[in-house]
Amino acid sequence: MTTSAPGSAPVYPHAPLSFRVPAVIAVLAVVIALVISGLVGHIAFGLWFALGAALIFGNAFLVRGTVSAITAEENPRKKPLVFNTAVRLGIITVFALVIAFFFRPEGLGVMFGLAVCQVILVLATVLPVMKGLRNQS
């Protein structure tokens, strides 16, 4: 990481805020999951996978809105963001676990959808930032 001047604040590369590329990749993952689950006779797994993907992107949109609202305040505080995030992730996790339990084995698709699409979102954010950091050095 480089800085603009000694003692100044670090300069970080811009993190992408668009969900376009990760959404396209996630849709492809959902289509692949639906095709494979349909071929093996468990189409419900693919449908639950799609629900998991939708939950992750819904959470990402809510996170972006929450962060925007909190950072727009004159004195932003971490506590409301942490609480909001913990409650939201708790609700999503409980919802996914209930589906996985009551609709097993196909219900596990929701957990796989959550996991795969979370990895897609994280990589879509981290890789451009890492590339920017590498270019700064």
From TrEMBL:
Compartments reported by the entry: Cell membrane
Would the keyword Transmembrane turn up in this protein's UniProt record? yes
Q: What is its main location?
A: membrane
Keyword set includes Membrane: yes
Question: What keywords is this UniProt entry annotated with?
Answer: Cell membrane, Membrane, Transmembrane, Transmembrane helix
How is the protein disposed in the membrane? Multi-pass membrane protein
What residues form the membrane-spanning segments? Answer: 21-41, 47-69, 81-103, 109-130
Q: Name one GO cellular component term.
A: plasma membrane
InterPro entries in the record, alphabetically? ATP_synth_I (IPR005598)
Give the protein's recorded name. ATP synthase I chain
- State the organism named in the record: Gordonia jinhuaensis
